[in-house]
Write a structure and sequence with these properties.
Layout: H1 6-40, E1 46-50, H2 57-73, E2 77-81, H3 88-95, E3 103-108, H4 109-118, E4 130-139, E5 142-146, H5 154-163, E6 169-172, H6 178-190, E7 195-198, H7 202-211, E8 216-219, H8 221-229, E9 233-238, H9 253-256, E10 265-272, H10 277-291, H11 294-302, E11 306-307, H12 312-333
Parallel strand pairs: 1-2, 1-3, 6-7, 6-8
Antiparallel strand pairs: 3-10, 4-10, 4-11, 5-8, 5-9
Length: 337
Amino acid sequence: MKNKLFTPLFTKFCGAALVATAFAAVSAGFALAQAQSNDQWPNKELRLIVPFGAGSTPDQIARVVANEASKSLNQPIIIENRPGAGGNIGTAAIAKAKPDGYTFGISINGPLVYNQFLYKNLNFDPNKDLYPLTLAVTQPNVIAVTAESGIESLEQLVDEIKKNPDSMNFAIPGTGSGSHLSQELLLQTVGAKAQAIPYNSSPQALNSLVAGDTQFTALAPIALVPLAKDGRLKLLAQTGAERIGALADVPTIKETGVADIVGAAWSGFVISNKVPQPIKKKLQEALIEALNQEEVVKTLRSQFMEPTPSTPEAFKAYMEEEKARWEPLIKSLDLSL
C-alpha cells in the first residue's frame, strides 16, 4: 500500500536537492570564473584618473609612474585628467568606477583627508569607498618672503607678524589648500595672526608676494626655487618632517626652533574598495616596483618630490595621522566650502 504523504514529500525533497545542487554548481562556476578573471588581469589597457589638470604635480607623478608600471603589467596605462572642486570630482570618479581593477587613480591631501571636513556635501567617503594602494610622494611647502623684506629667518618672520598683525597678509592658492592649512597651523601654534589672501593658483599667489600685495607664503619648491636663485626670494623653512636633498640648505620648521609642526603635501594611488583583493595586490606591487625604479626616483627628486612607496596598511595609517592633525585645525578655523 502506497504512502500518500511520502510521495509529494519525496518529490519536494528531490526538487529542493536539485535546486541546491544547481545553485552550488552555478556558485562554483562563478567563483572559478572570478578566479580565472583575477589571474588573467590585466588583459586590456588601464585608466589612471588624475583629479587635477595636465601639468599639475599629481599629473606629473602619474605619468612618470604609469610609464614604468605599464611595463610590468604588460598593458598601457592611459592618463585621464578630471579636475574640479578641489580634486573631489576626479577622486569621486575613482571611487565610483567599475570595480574590475581597470580604473584607478592618484589623489592628494585634500580629497583624501581635508575635504571631508571642509565640504558639506562630499559625494564619496574616502575612508570607505577608496582603497589605499600606496603612498607615492611627499613634498614640503616652503615658507618664503621677498629678499626686499629684509627677513632672514622664520623666527624673524614670526616676530614681525606678532608686531604688525594688521599689516601682514599671506598668499594661498585656494582656501583649504595644503598651503593654507600649513600656514594657519604655524600661526596658531606660535600664537600669531595674519590674514589669508586666496588666489586661484600657485603662480597667482607667488605673483602677489613678488608684487608686495602679500608679505609671505608657503608654496611648492618648484614655484619658489627659481626666484630664490635669482635673489628675489628668501626661503625660510620647509614644512616636511625632514629636509629633502634638493633643499638641503633650507631647515624644517622644527629645526628653526619656532614650532614643532609638519605640514607636507603628499600624493598616493587609490582604487575602488570593491575591487577584488588579488587585483589590488597585483596593481600595488606594480606601482611599488615603479616607484623604486632608479630613473623614477631621479625624475621625482628633480621636481623636489621624495618617493615614499608604502604598504596599503602604512598608507592607511598615515592618512589617519593626517586626519588627527588637520581636523581640529579646520574646525577651529570654521572653514566650510
